[in-house]
Design brief:
The structure is a single chain. With 99 residues, this protein is α/β, with parallel strands linked by helices. The chain is globular. It has helices spanning 15-28, 47-59, 71-84, 90-93; strands at 2-4, 11-12, 36-38, 44-45, 65-67. The chain contains 4 helices and 5 strands. 45% of the residues lie in helices and 13% in strands. Helix 1 (15-28) packs parallel to helix 2 (47-59) and helix 2 (47-59) packs across helix 3 (71-84).
């Protein structure tokens, strides 16, 4: 299952929106299936959005893959996960990365 973040906009900047979209993604997720979040078409995210949207997802036992992540978003995503104490390997998290 792929959750297309750009279906909800191109710029994401608040914790409440992060929580709302996380809940929507989880509602569509099927246990045991590969769960991918596509950032194709996303221009910008804030640290607070990334923390609220991705932090809890990346702490779960069934971590999503992040696909089509523009390079300018890597620093924000990695910073939010590090602050949350998520242990990760970049190749484990990021699927296909936009050039």
């Amino acid at each position: 299952m792929t959750f297309l973040l750009a279906d909800h906009g191109a710029v994401f900047s608040t914790r409440p929106l992060g929580a709302q979209l996380r809940d929507q993604a989880l509602a569509r997720r099927v246990s045991g299936e590969v769960f991918t979040i596509s950032f194709n078409g996303v221009q910008s995210i804030s640290y607070s959005f990334a923390d609220e949207f991705l932090g809890p997802l990346m702490l779960s036992s069934e971590r999503p893959k992040l696909a089509d992540v523009p390079p300018q978003l890597h620093r924000i995503i990695l910073g939010a996960l590090e602050r949350r104490g998520v242990r990760f390997n970049e190749s484990e998290i990021f699927g296909h990365v936009c050039a």
